[in-house]
Amino acid sequence: MTATVNSRLSGELADATSSDAALRRFLHGLPGVDQVGAEARAARLGTRSIKTSAKAFAIDLAIRMVDLTTLEGQDTPGKVRSLASKAMRPDPTDPACPATAAVCVYPDLVGVAKETLGDSGVQVAAVATAFPSGRAARDIKLADTADAVEAGADEIDMVIDRGAFLTGRYLQVFEEIVAVREACARPDGTSAHLKVIFETGELQTYDNVRRASWLAMLAGADFIKTSTGKVQPAATLPVTLVMLEAVRDWHEATGQMVGVKPAGGIRTTKDAIKYLVMVNEIAGDAWLDPAWFRFGASSLLNDLLMQRTKMLTGRYTGPDYVTVD
Q1: What's the pLDDT tens digit per position in 249-265?
Q2: How far is CA 114 from CA 67, 128, 154, 240, 261, in A?
Q3: CB 225 within 8 A of CB 261
Q4: How far apart are CA 277 and CA 49, in angstroms?
Q5: Whole-number Å distance between alpha carbons of 99 and 102
Q6: Which has the closest alpha carbon to 135: 162, 153, 98, 167?
Q7: Are 293 and 279 in contact, with CB atoms under 8 Å apart?
Q8: Coiled-coil region(s) at which residues (predicted)?
Q9: Which has the minimum average pLDDT: 44-58, 72-86, 183-197, 286-300?
Q10: Are 154 and 194 in contact, with CB atoms under 8 Å apart?
């Protein structure tokens, strides 16, 4: 966006959530997304190559950005302990290999993950608010969130009510995000970080992705996240580009940084590097940090580890040399 647009947004932010009508005017007053232009730019950035030394740095950075995830009905305490151990030491043969950013689990398994991770520095993220559909009464969603925080979750990944958003009930979505953020508070005055999931594969247009991004940031999101990983398409480069533009423009208008998390379908080192190039080009190098950019993934870590070994030894280890998630 231009500086003029950002100046206008700065002046309107204070009034945007004063009423349903004001919020609607603000969101529909955002500049539209040029679909062809966004997809073309994402494709161009995806062809960028990086030097060998930069690739080694990018692989370690990508490992540090992974939210290692298991969100299946068959999850067990044993599986979560194994995943948490892998998060702390992704390559047990190489102490120099960095740990991942977080382990992401269902709320009932937060305690298991927290106990296993201890003071390792790896965060525990919990999906909440009737993940992945978001179809539940608000009091149930808030109880779900509070239970996860009480169990020790460092981060909460909530899903928006896409039905409400798509029918223009923006204030309802806004108020729910605000309420979940309040439920993230701990008795000691700190708060779990809140990631807001849009399920972009159901939002239909890039304009809606931009509106959802601003709506979540207005409501106090610490991160905006593409997807649950349960709906296709999940994360894509053009969708992530639109979200990165949103956090960049929010920062220019407010001085506040908000993180971005693409999730679902990012499986290879080549894919991860494309996203890192985009982060640098669209939002800036300040976002090249696990505090501000994450990958929601499981199989991605294995490929990063294999490529890392190739960089160090000159040969691939193969999938049999990494743990199966």
Answers
A1: 999 999 999 999 999 99
A2: 14, 16, 9, 30, 22
A3: yes
A4: 9
A5: 9
A6: 162
A7: yes
A8: none
A9: 44-58
A10: no
- C-alpha 144: how far from chain center: 19
- pLDDT tens digit string along 45-64? 999 888 887 999 999 999 99
- Helix, strand, coil fractions of the chain, as percent rounded to 5: 55, 10, 35
Expressed in angstroms, the distance from the first to the final Cα of the chain is: 41
Whether residue 157 lies in the annotated active site:
yes
Determine whether 55 is an active site residue: no
The sign of the CA dihedral 281, 283, 288, 294 is: negative
Q: Which residues pair with 105 in a beta bridge?
A: 126
Mean pLDDT over the full length of the chain: 93
Q: Do 66 and 295 touch, CB atoms closer than 8 A?
A: yes
Segment among 55-59, 103-107, 222-226, 321-325 with least mean pLDDT: 321-325
For residue 6, what is the enclosing H or E element? helix 3-16
Q: How far apart are CA 245 and CA 214, in angstroms?
A: 11
Q: Are 109 and 324 in contact (CB under 8 A)?
A: no
Residue of 157, 161, 222, 271 with catalytic role: 157
Share of the chain above pLDDT 90, in %: 86
Tokens 């009932």 label which residue?
108
Strand bridging mode 66-69 / 295-297: parallel
Domains observed in the chain: 3-313 (3.20.20.70)
Question: How many CB atoms sit inside 10 A of residue 314's CB?
Answer: 7
pLDDT band at 16 (very low <50, low <70, confident <90, very high): confident
Partner residues linked to 128 by β-bridges: 158
Beta bridge partners of residue 260, listed in sequence order: 224, 293
Both tokens of 44, joined, read 């161009």
Tokens of 292: 């501000």
Active-site entry in 91, 225, 271, 274: 225
Q: How far apart are CA 305 and CA 301, in angstroms?
A: 6
67, 261, 271, 303: the catalytic one is 261
